């Protein structure tokens, strides 16, 4: 702990901390709190009366937090925010009765975003993607995952992942990149899904060498890839030392959640159709359940993910936006938290843990997500009277300030 000893860089007094520590009460709350950081890490997060000396002697700068609530920076652990074009017309068609799967089988859906993404150069893709990432940041997100999957050829998948990295560099926030080349079958491989999986397996080490891949994902579904194809991809990813995660059991139960748990995967995402045995497999493997209520809402789904079984088996539940042009044009993680409460009956506290600590776990990040000494000093000061408000308000400007590694970015 020596390196976190005073003198600290900054000390905030009059803070109400939602630490999300498990050993405290609701929200891990500390009402008369103080928060200090040093070299980008939290050095103190506790009751002000436990400060080890006079505030002025402890830090180079001491300020009042004005009794504002402070939470860890939000973690959006599942997005597809790099893409060209939009799918507003598909939205109109679905409202007239066409289903998501029907549109996909007609060559629209994901493939229409593939056409628009292939047509966009790196600069255009970055210009289209930055405002979406900025919207998330403005609502408290300090760590973000971005998937590829609208390229479906080597060059465009690579371009998407490069843009994802540039989003992080431009905004000064952490971006984790996930290769989702196995998102849909590109027209060049029509009728040859196994050949396409083989191609994506070839791309992986090349993308990995360029530092563009933190994890590997697939869409295991009737309109995506089979469990056998997913397994081949996961075997290749595992051989490269890359962690896996999966779009699992969203529209039907193909056993996707159990499959990804079998690879000790980071997360099984969507999981509306996942059964109890698979939930037990996730618990045993430490695989996080990523709930995506935005897609559930937009597709007007009715099959609820197995929330009670997840709770009973103590599977960590994360909440993410799934921000994408088709099923979730959702640019606020707080709104995803609200939808998780309303549709899935998460408590506001579960939703906040889902958008912080558990979101971080779904990315394999253990250095953030709670206000605890030693964690990164990623935190948000909010204009609220109680942490439940974060999931309660639909929209609104609740952010007072956002810090990433101790540096104010918003
Ligand atoms: O997470 N399910 C597959 N992928 C996305 C949707 C992608 C799209 O429709 O563009 C999802 O919902
Ligand atoms: Fe998704």
Automatic annotation (TrEMBL):
Belongs to the metallo-dependent hydrolases superfamily. HutI family. Binds 1 zinc or iron ion per subunit. 4-imidazolone-5-propanoate binds at residues 87, 150, 183, 250, 327. Gene3D superfamilies: Metal-dependent hydrolases, Urease, subunit C, domain 1. Its cofactor is Zn(2+); Fe(3+). Fe(3+) binds at residues 78, 80, 247, 322. It catalyses: 4-imidazolone-5-propanoate + H2O = N-formimidoyl-L-glutamate. It is found in: Cytoplasm. This is Imidazolonepropionase. It comes from the Bacteria. Residues 69-408 form the Amidohydrolase-related domain. It is an enzyme of class 3 (hydrolase). Catalyzes the hydrolytic cleavage of the carbon-nitrogen bond in imidazolone-5-propanoate to yield N-formimidoyl-L-glutamate. It is the third step in the universal histidine degradation pathway. Pathway: Amino-acid degradation; L-histidine degradation into L-glutamate; N-formimidoyl-L-glutamate from L-histidine: step 3/3. SUPFAM superfamilies: Composite domain of metallo-dependent hydrolases, Metallo-dependent hydrolases. One of its GO terms (biological process) is L-histidine catabolic process to glutamate and formate. Its main location: cytoplasm. It comes from Arenimonas caeni. InterPro entries: Amidohydro-rel (IPR006680), HutI (IPR005920), Metal-dep_hydrolase_composite (IPR011059), Metal_Hydrolase (IPR032466). Keywords: Cytoplasm, Histidine metabolism, Hydrolase, Iron, Metal-binding, Zinc. One of its GO terms (cellular component) is cytoplasm. Its EC number is 3.5.2.7. N-formimidoyl-L-glutamate binds at residues 150, 324, 326. One of its GO terms (molecular function) is iron ion binding. The gene is hutI. Zn(2+) binds at residues 78, 80, 247, 322.
């Amino acid at each position: 702990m020596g390196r976190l000893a005073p003198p600290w860089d900054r000390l905030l007094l009059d803070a109400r901390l939602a630490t999300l520590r498990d050993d405290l009460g609701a929200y891990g709350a500390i009402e008369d709190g103080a928060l200090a950081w040093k070299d980008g890490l939290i050095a103190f997060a506790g009751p002000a009366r436990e400060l080890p000396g006079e505030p002025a002697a402890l830090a180079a700068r001491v300020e009042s937090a004005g009794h504002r609530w402070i939470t860890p920076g939000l973690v959006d652990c599942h997005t597809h925010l790099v893409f060209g074009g939009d799918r507003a017309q598909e939205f109109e068609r679905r409202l007239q009765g066409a289903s998501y799967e029907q549109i996909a089988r007609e060559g629209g859906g994901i493939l229409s975003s593939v056409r628009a993404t292939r047509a966009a150069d790196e600069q255009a893709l970055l210009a289209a993607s930055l405002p979406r990432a900025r919207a998330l940041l403005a609502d408290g997100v300090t760590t973000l995952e971005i998937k590829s999957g609208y390229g479906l050829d080597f060059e465009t998948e690579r371009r998407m992942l490069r843009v994802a990295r540039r989003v992080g560099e431009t905004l000064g926030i952490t971006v984790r990149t996930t290769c989702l080349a196995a998102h849909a079958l590109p027209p060049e491989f029509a009728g040859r899904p196994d050949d396409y999986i083989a191609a994506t397996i070839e791309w992986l080490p090349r993308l990995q060498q360029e530092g563009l891949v933190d994890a590997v994902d697939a869409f295991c579904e009737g309109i995506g890839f089979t469990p056998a194809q997913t397994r081949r991809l996961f075997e290749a990813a595992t051989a490269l030392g890359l962690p896996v995660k999966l779009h699992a059991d969203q529209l039907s139960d193909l056993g996707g959640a159990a499959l990804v748990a079998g690879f000790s995967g980071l997360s099984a995402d969507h999981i509306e159709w996942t059964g109890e045995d698979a939930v037990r497999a996730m618990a045993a493997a430490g695989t996080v359940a990523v709930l995506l209520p935005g897609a559930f809402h937009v597709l007007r789904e009715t099959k609820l993910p197995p929330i009670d079984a997840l709770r009973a088996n103590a599977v960590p539940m994360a909440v993410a936006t799934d921000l994408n042009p088709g099923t979730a044009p959702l640019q606020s993680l707080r709104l995803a938290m609200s939808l998780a409460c309303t549709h899935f009956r998460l408590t506001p506290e579960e939703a906040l843990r889902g958008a912080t600590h558990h979101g971080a776990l779904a990315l394999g990040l253990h250095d953030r997500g709670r206000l605890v000494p030693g964690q990164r000093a990623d935190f948000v000061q909010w204009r609220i009277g109680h942490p439940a408000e974060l999931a309660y308000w639909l929209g609104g400007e609740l952010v007072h300030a956002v810090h990433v590694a101790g540096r104010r970015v918003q």
